[in-house]
Structure formats: structure tokens, C-alpha cells
Amino acid sequence: DSPKASEASSAAPLGDQSARASIARVYDAALGGTDNFEIDRQVLEQVRKVAPEVNDLAWSNRRFLGRAVRFLTDQGGIRQFLDCGSGLPTADNTHQIARRIAPATRVVYVDNDPAVVAQSEALLADDELCHVVDADIFQPARVLGNETIRSHLDFSQPLALLQVGTLHHYAGDDGAELMRQYIDALPVGGFVVIAHFFDPQTDELSPLARRMEQVFLHSPMRSGVFRTRAQITGFLPGLDIVPPGPDRQGELELCDLWWPDGPRLRPLNQVQRCIAAAVGRKA
Ligand code: SAM
After folding, report:
1. Interface pTM, i.e. ipTM
2. C-alpha 164 to ligand 1 mean position (Å)
3. Which residue windows are coiled coil (predicted)?
4. Helix extents (H) in the chain
5. Is the per-residue pLDDT at 10 higher than 60?
6. Model's pTM, two decimal places?
7. Domain locations along the chain
8. At the topology level of CATH, where does 18-259+267-281 sit?
9. Most buried residue, 9, 37, 43, 250, by most Cβ within 10 Å?
10. Contact of 170 with 200, CB cutoff 8 Å
């Protein structure tokens, strides 16, 4: 028997997934994955009509996630991650990135998409240090009270909470309060990582952000809010934002410009300017 048989039994039955678009599968399609259906690809095609480089939005987000996890494991000394809205397992998942640096890193993945939960359970079945929880990440009290999370992560030790590519799927205007509940539960020295659809509020780019938002909101996916610098920074109440580059103050930065892996030889396109990120530290 799998050591995780009891956790696996909590997953909802998969049923016919091909009838409704899923955030996780639309994202998978944008990353060039194969875990998606026609209805998911149609959402992407709709967005592509107003933003031809939409796949770059997904890649900018995903590459940022990789660099942030590497930074937190290496420089931040983090050995525990709570990865909220983790998505379908892909090539470089949080535990795989972290373990190249610290093999004993613990990760709990949280998602409410049945396919994500099922595939993550399959991937992690024999992994004692990694778990997946089926929960609504926009209900922090439930996530923080979850038995699997409480038993596998030690909230008295440094821990990083990831909300990468997730909070733009929360339509409410009380996101800062939601995040405060997570932040209150973190120990001093804990980190929060966010990446979010960004409205740069320039004459040139704001209309593009608004057009993408309209397509996302009216698509079968029904979510995807582009927020301003102040709104996104507001999701890290009370945290010190880590400088996003050399000789920089801590502030929100475009995903692609957050400690890039090397010099940029090609200019960012307009879509890449519509996703931003920050890493906050609890002092
Ligand atoms: N974090 C991953 C990354 O950045 O590569 C995946 C991001 S994907 C765009 C967003 C994920 O959040 C999807 O897997 C979706 O199912 C999940 N999600 C959206 N709303 C959620 C909710 N209320 N509770 C749990 N997961 C949610």
C-alpha cells in the first residue's frame, strides 16, 4: 500500500474534466504542456487574439517561481514550502528545484483542482517529505488548520508560502486581509512569494491589461484580475520586500526582471510587462 493511501482517498472523483475549462490546464497549455483539453486551448486562443504573446505570460511566471525557490533555499535557508495553487506537476516543481540544493526540503502542495490533486498524489506517492492537499487557498483558516499541513510543516521554523500565479484568480477586494492571515501564521524569518497579473498603468500598457482581463473574466475560466502596483504590494502587509536586483530597493518588479539568470539580450514584449512579482520577508 502507498504510505499516502488515506490522503489519496480524500481527492474528489475526477469525472469528466473535458467539459469545463480549468485554470491549471489553461496554464499548462500556455506552457506547451499536453495535460489540457480543447476547451482549455480555446480560452488561450481567445486571449491570444488580444495578446499574441500570452504564452510568455505563463513562462515569465513559471521561470520566476524557479528562481525564487532557488533563492529561498540557497540564500534564505528555507527547508519548508507551502505551495498554494501549485498547478499540474510539470518539469521543475518546487520540491525538485529546492532539493538540488537541500535534499531534505519538505513541500506541501495545495490546489483545489481535482486533476492537479490526483496527478500530484501520483507523483508524490512514495515521497515522505512532500504531500498534496485538496483545499481552497482563498480560505486561509482552513488551509492553516489542515491536518496534513500542520503535521508535515513546522510553523515555528522558517517556512516559505508561495502564491505564484494564484491571487489574480481571487476576485474579492479583501485579498490583503486574506494574506494577512497567512502572514500572521508564519514565523519571523518566513517568506511570502507572489506573482500576479499586473496592470502597469501606462497609457501604452493599461489597455492591453484590461483587454486580457476582459477575455479571462468572460471566458469559461471566469477569473484573472490585473491589479496595480499598490494593490499587489498590498498583498504583503507588514513584510520587508526583498530587493529584486542589485542596488535596488525592495519593491514589486516584473517577473522577468526579478534577479534574471543572465543579461537580457531581447527587449521584453508588452505581455511580459503585465506580470509582476515580489518576495517578502517577515522581520
Ligand atoms: N503556482 C503554479 C505556478 O506558478 O506555476 C501554478 C499556477 S496556475 C496559473 C494557478 C493554480 O491555482 C491552478 O492550479 C489552480 O487550480 C489553482 N487555484 C486557483 N484557485 C484556487 C483556489 N481557490 N484554491 C486552490 N487552488 C486554486
Report:
1. 0.99
2. 8
3. none
4. 5-8, 23-30, 38-50, 54-74, 94-99, 114-124, 140-145, 147-152, 175-185, 206-218, 229-233
5. no
6. 0.95
7. 18-259+267-281
8. Rossmann fold (3.40.50)
9. 43
10. no
